[in-house]
Amino acid sequence: MPSVTAPHSVILGTGAYAPDKILTNGELERLVDTSDAWITERTGIRERRIAGDDQASSDMALHAAQRALQAAGLTAKDLDMIIVGTVTPDLPMPACAAILQQKLGAGPIPSFDISAACAGFIYAMSIADQFIRSGAQKHVLIVGVELLSRILNWKDRTTCVLFGDGAGAAVLGPAKEDGSGILSTKLYTDSSLVGSLCIPGGGSKEPLTAESLANARGKVHMAGQDIFKVAVKNLTSASRSALEQAELPASAVRWVVPHQANLRIIAQVAARLDIPLERFVLNIERYGNTSSASIPIALDEGLRDGRIQKGDTVLMCALGAGVSWGSALVRV
Ligand code: UT7
To answer: Is 139 designated active site?
Structure first.
């Protein structure tokens, strides 16, 4: 079990990318029966980014990855592995990570996708940590990227107002002797709510037909309240477990970088953990829910604007479809 004094992998650099095009709540009012007031009050979202027609997930991932490599002082040739958390790969096959490897000009290194929805970045971080800790790999690029605007039903007000596009990345490497590094990670999946957040059609179970396409079976479906309740409960317990594993109290956490799905979920988790909301890095207002990209985008913002300082203990937690969720405690 990793201890506080001997973490085994560390974040060497982070990067993020969000497309230029901004879609405001006001613009959504013209698309579906919604209002800026409803979206802001119920979610905290004011605007989100939408990728260009010429962009795929790997293009956004490339920008974030290049920025993370630059921050780490490394090049793509230094990488030993690429893990991409995404539910919106460029193609059903091969992996988005393989396409990213090609665009980055990395060597013939293992590169694969993780399908853990909004928890994808935490899953990728935990897997990278295991590889580095075992000594099998040295430098691992982890990416959370989503082009959700392509898989939303733009006639469904219960989902289309919530999500946005973007990418975030981090390069992980062996820990130094300064106490920084990944202190603990926790991963979970509970399949009892599989149907509460899913894309019903388009996979092997239900190949798309003209009829199912017209019925939006290939788009995101969500029972929001079911997910809301389980998110508050599980994000809190996973955060507590990460702290317990590292033998740290909640008061040791300088910053929380939560998945940005709903400000009300985040506020309830903050209250249960007894960590003031002021210590949460929040950007949901500007990006909405970017699924696996939300934590690395917020982490990168917090690091680059100086809120998160060297030596700070940072707690991350995310939950999404599956439901899959997880947490990570990191000393930066
Ligand atoms: O990242 C993956 C994980 N996802 C999440 O964590 C999302 C979790 N769920 C949520 O964040 C919230 O459940 C939502 C934001 C999705 C919905 O908020 P809510 O407070 O749970 O609303 P609700 O589903 O209970 O709906 C309340 C009302 C309904 O109308 P009636 O039946 O009371 O007349 C909805 O039809 O709000 C209506 N509604 C809307 N009204 C205006 C739903 N969406 C909208 C909308 N604009 N966009």
So the answer is: no
The domain boundary residue, chosen from 177, 204, 219: 177
Tell me the residue type at 308.
Answer: I
> For a pLDDT cut of 90, what percent of the chain falls above it?
96
- Please work out whether the CB of residue 317 comes within 6 Å of at least one atom of ligand 1: no
**Token pair of 244, please?**
């317990």
Taking phi first (over 0 means left), then psi (-120 to 50 degrees means alpha), and beta for anything else, what does residue 255 get? beta
Q: Give residue 1's pLDDT.
A: 42
CA–CA dist 158, 134 (Å, integer)? 44
Query: Which protein residue's CA is at the shortest distance from atom 42 of ligand 1?
Result: 34
Distance 163 CA to ligand 1 centre (A): 13
Cα separation, 152 vs 147, in Å, equals 10
What's the pLDDT at 2? 45
Within this chain, do residues 161 and 269 fall inside the same structural domain, yes or no? no
Of 117, 145, 177, the position where a domain reaches its end is: 177
CATH code where residue 127 lies: 3.40.47.10
Catalytic residue status for 198: no
**For this structure, is 317 an active site residue?**
no
List of residues 6+ apart from 230 with CB closer than 8 A = 190, 193, 319, 323
Asked if the model's pLDDT at residue 7 lies above 80, the reply is: no
- Does 162 lie in the same domain as 22? yes
**213-224 tens-digit pLDDT:** 999 999 999 999
Count Cβ atoms within 10 A of the Cβ of residue 254 and give its class: 0-12 exposed, 13-18 middle, 19 or more buried: middle
